[in-house]
């Protein structure tokens, strides 16, 4: 579904991603691990069109999407759940969710997707008129996922969804991703939590200093000392 080939991204004179290649089969969950500053968010931002790669190709359903405007990429079915939840604190839960549909014009479809999304997150459903800033961290993470789903994506890019959540809420988030996966969603999951990646991903890639340092099946992550060394950058 997604193919990334020889991607490099620069910030000014600094090369932050170097010759990154991987692919994401339709219906899979693939994890991208790596320490702080490894280039994980940069990679997601290149996929969603926020950053323009200097070299390389990104193909979605066989069609090149690198260099396209973020709105056009969202319309083709790729939505990002940004790092740090990033909800609008002074807007209601309902309005935050509606913002996820900003690229759509099919009003009836938007309304029915909204009902579906609130069905998926009952905690949010009862708080539609509450300001997003008044939600707990876990609820804000769910809201960020709910907002992304309103774009009706086929590929969800998630940037450290477990960060800052209690173990109970991490388990809830894992359950949500499992459910989306079972309904056919393809997910690229950026994580620093190896346990979460191992629980969800079929395949994992470790990014270090802007390069894929190694790749392994998800179920081998916790038994692979080489990976952990590489992951920790030692
Ligand atoms: N706008 C920017 N301008 C210049 N350098 C940047 C910019 N954004 C990020 N960087 C640098 O690019 C590198 C990769 O950053 P990125 O945010 O992609 O890492 P990350 O893996 O997502 O880290 P984290 O786990 O902390 O979120 C880092 O060295 C960072 O300092
Ligand atoms: Mg990041």
Walkthrough of the structure:
The protein has nine helices and ten strands. The chain is of the alpha/beta class. It has two domains: 156 residues, P-loop containing nucleotide triphosphate hydrolases (Rossmann fold), CATH 3.40.50; 63 residues, no CATH class. The strands form two sheets. The protein has a six-stranded mixed β-sheet, with helices on both faces. It has a four-stranded antiparallel β-sheet with strand order 2-1-4-5, with helices on one face. A hairpin with a 2-residue loop joins strand 1 and strand 2. The longest helix has 16 residues. The radius of gyration is 17 Å and the shape is globular. Bound molecules: adenosine-5'-triphosphate and magnesium ion. Adenosine-5'-triphosphate binds next to helix 1.
Summarize this structure briefly.
The protein is of the alpha/beta class.
Main beta-sheet annotation: 6 strands, mixed
Q: Which CATH class of the largest domain?
A: Alpha Beta
What would the average pLDDT be, to the nearest integer? 93
The ordered H/E elements are EEEHEEHEHHHHEHEHEEH
Give the N-terminus to C-terminus distance in angstroms: 33 Å
Secondary structure tally, helices: 9
Helix proportion range: 25-40%
SS-derived structural category: alpha/beta
Question: What are the distinct ligands in this entry?
Answer: adenosine-5'-triphosphate, magnesium ion
Low-confidence segments: none
Count all strands and give the number. Answer: 10
**At CATH's second level, what is the architecture of the largest domain?**
3-Layer(aba) Sandwich
Strand content: 25-35%
CATH fold title of the largest domain: Rossmann fold
Domain count: 2
What is the radius of gyration computed over CA atoms, rounded to a whole number of angstroms? 17 Å
Give, in spatial order, the strands making up the sheet with the most strands: 6-7-8-3-9-10
Give the CATH superfamily of the largest domain: P-loop containing nucleotide triphosphate hydrolases
């Amino acid at each position: 579904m997604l193919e990334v080939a020889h991607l490099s991204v620069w910030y000014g004179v600094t090369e932050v991603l170097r010759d990154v290649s991987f692919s994401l089969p339709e219906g899979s969950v693939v994890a991208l691990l790596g320490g702080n500053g490894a280039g994980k968010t940069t990679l997601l931002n290149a996929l969603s069109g926020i950053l323009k790669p200097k070299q390389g190709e990104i193909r979605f359903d066989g069609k090149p999407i690198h260099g396209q405007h973020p709105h056009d990429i969202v319309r083709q079915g790729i939505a990002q759940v940004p790092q740090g939840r990033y909800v609008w604190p002074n807007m209601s839960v309902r309005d935050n969710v509606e913002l996820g549909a900003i690229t759509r014009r099919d009003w009836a479809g938007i309304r029915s997707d909204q009902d579906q999304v609130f069905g998926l997150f009952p905690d949010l459903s009862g708080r539609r008129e509450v300001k997003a800033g008044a939600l707990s961290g876990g609820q804000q993470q769910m809201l960020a996922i709910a907002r992304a789903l309103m774009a009706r994506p086929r590929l969800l890019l998630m940037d450290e969804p477990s960060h800052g959540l209690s173990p109970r809420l991490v388990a809830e988030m894992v359950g949500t991703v499992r459910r989306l996966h079972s309904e056919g969603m393809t997910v690229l999951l950026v994580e620093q939590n190896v346990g979460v990646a191992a629980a969800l991903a079929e395949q994992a890639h470790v990014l270090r200093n802007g390069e894929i340092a190694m790749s392994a099946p998800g179920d081998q992550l916790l038994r692979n000392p080489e990976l952990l060394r590489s992951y920790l950058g030692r």
